[in-house]
Write a structure and sequence with these properties.
- Helices cover 33% and strands 29% of the residues.
- Strands 8-9-10-7-11-12-13-15-14 form a nine-stranded mixed sheet.
- A hairpin with a 4-residue loop joins strand 9 and strand 10.
- Helix 4 packs parallel to helix 5, helix 5 packs antiparallel against helix 9 and helix 7 packs across helix 9.
- The chain is globular, with a radius of gyration of 21 Å.
Length: 324
């Protein structure tokens, strides 16, 4: 039985508590949260012990789940790793590049499991295409959200866009060649809206737009590769595949078109998207990696690479000197 301690029981932390309670082989030991009002409510609602001492909570656990603000990630991670505890930490991995690099090095030396909470890797719309051979050469992303003061201690790059950066880096098996970026701070002191172009050594180009001051919500990614287009709607949990029809394609809508190379058949498919709980899936995957000594789905290195690109974007935006 893995004993779990949670650091941070705010909005997202409560989702984690609800899901930990439903996972087999796990026992919630308690939580640490400096907010007295929030801690009192959680203790009453979940019947869970509140620890006032971080060390005592860690000593009582096998697994530490960190959903604290980003600028606290490093200290809690390092403290847990030094104690030999497995760590699940919400994205971004850390507040600075050096902190992220130190965490990666410590995990390697400590021989523990660490998973970063890039939950979109477990979105059912994305999982619906996990068996499809993907080699995108052009990627277009729009991630728009209405303004919410929660989470604004970091820029829209580290708050929203980093989800898509992580997925793109996992799909494009090539190093980043060049980044262009522009952004504007509207409601906070850091960029609230940004547009980014990432060019890879293999020729792939990704255009990303993220905003947390939009009037409507949108979380869409479009992948274009030879003979195929894939649309993923992370918000509505829908996936669409348009490609040249193959002899073994079944259960798809198709139609013929005339091209310069003759007649071709286009197939349109909507893969079945299962009604899955992404947060529960990522926590279950983490537990599985611990119990069966398997690599984590989103490792500390994955988290660091996404964070590294995000900080390169922030540097590019800073150099444009258009923040207002």
């Amino acid at each position: 039985m893995l004993k779990v301690g949670v650091f941070g029981v705010g909005h997202l932390g409560k989702f984690h508590l609800n899901n930990w309670k439903e996972i087999d082989g796990v026992k919630l030991v308690g939580f640490f949260d400096p907010n007295n009002e929030n801690a009192k409510a959680v203790s009453e609602q979940y019947g869970l012990k509140r620890y006032m001492d971080e060390d005592k909570l860690m000593d009582a656990c096998d697994v530490i789940d960190i959903i604290a603000p980003t600028d606290h990630h490093f200290a809690i991670c390092m403290q847990a790793i030094r104690k030999g505890k497995h760590v699940f930490v919400e994205k971004p991995l850390a507040h600075t590049i050096q902190e992220g690099r130190d965490i990666v090095n410590m995990v390697r030396e400590a021989n523990i499991k660490l998973q970063v909470g890039h939950v979109e890797r477990f979105n059912p719309a994305y999982l619906a295409i996990k068996d499809m051979p993907l080699n995108p050469m052009f990627i277009e992303v729009h991630r728009l959200a209405q303004f919410n003061p929660r989470g604004t201690e970091v820029s829209v790059i580290l708050d929203l866009m980093i989800h898509d950066i992580d997925i793109i880096l996992s799909l494009v098996k090539s190093d980043v060649k060049h980044i262009s970026a522009s952004g504007v701070a509207v409601m906070t002191e850091t960029p609230d809206i940004a547009n980014v172009r990432i060019e890879f050594n293999n020729g792939c180009v990704a255009n990303l737009t993220s905003s947390r001051i939009s009037m409507k919500k949108m979380r869409k990614m479009r992948l274009f590769q030879k003979d195929a287009y894939v649309g993923i709607d992370f918000l509505e949990k829908k996936t669409e595949i348009i490609k040249l029809k193959q002899p073994d394609d079944t259960n798809v809508f198709s139609f013929d078109i005339d091209t310069l190379n003759g007649k071709k058949t286009i197939a349109i498919a909507n893969p079945a998207v299962q009604p899955l709980n992404a947060i529960k899936l990522e926590l279950e995957a983490f537990v599985d990696s611990i119990l069966n000594n398997k690599p984590t789905v989103v490792s500390e290195i994955d988290g660091f690479l996404a964070m590294e690109v995000a900080h390169q974007i922030l540097e590019k935006i800073s150099n444009t000197s258009i923040l207002v």
